[in-house]
Amino acid sequence: WTFMASAWTLTQFLLAFASTPIPTHRNTHARARTPAASATRSAWQPVLEQLPKRIRAAQKAFAQNGLLYVPNFLERDEFEAVRLECRQLRGQSKREKDSVAKGRLGRCLSPKSATHKAFMNQATASRLGELTGVDGLQASDYAAELRFYPVGASMDWHRDDQLYEPAQLEVVFTLENTSDSATQWISRSGELESVWTEPNSLIAVTAGALGPSHCVTPIRRGERAILKLVYSRSEHKTKAYTAHLDSFPGRRKKTAVKPGIRFGASRGRCGSNKR
Fold first, then answer.
1. Averaged over 185-210, what is the pLDDT?
2. pTM higher than 0.70, yes or no?
3. Predicted confidence (pLDDT) at residue 6 exceeds the cutoff of 90
4. Residue 100 and residue 266 in contact, taking contact as beta carbons nearer than 8 Å
5. What pLDDT, in 10s, does the model give residues 134-180?
């Protein structure tokens, strides 16, 4: 009798279970979806679908020019925190020495600063690697620099000196830009390109002989504040690395810079045909 009762109970349980519809993946979402959730999903769907295309387009642009312009790089709150910290350092900047840039001010950032921590990390290096298609990028040990272009400042046509082997990726991140100045470069097809860099944007450039010739046009009004950041694929340094160590205050001096050396070989004044 006990066995029959147990069998009957088990039979009733199995029949009840079998009559209960098993929710599918679609049904689960259909029950959980509200009008607001549906609208949010619809709004984000094109973004999710376009993300791989945007990355592919970025990698293609970088491969064609050795340079990539990326707007809205940081989240808004993080960007504002970085910009505020750098504004407070404005009074500590000094004129740069022995540079192809004219009238530029700046200083090196402390590795303990929030700005340094926001950029010089593996997550940012990996993101830049994804956008450019450059494998093995890492935050280098080269000092992060805060630079200011006041009225009258400019940077002549040049290619960035190669500091590492293989050539590093140099990043210019715009903090402020109330100026009329533009960044110009020559594409690999020989075309003159130009962009006014908006705050929270960056330009990633290949250094060395394979990098594009570029310049910053003279500032007639306003000011431009930027970060100069270096990402490398190895720790093997070139001789040019040491020569750059004394260009800004805050960087440890290892060797004296020989008179007449200017960082970044000049290719002519920005706006001229000499490149």
1. 96
2. yes
3. no
4. yes
5. 999 999 999 999 999 999 999 999 999 999 999 999 999 999 999 99
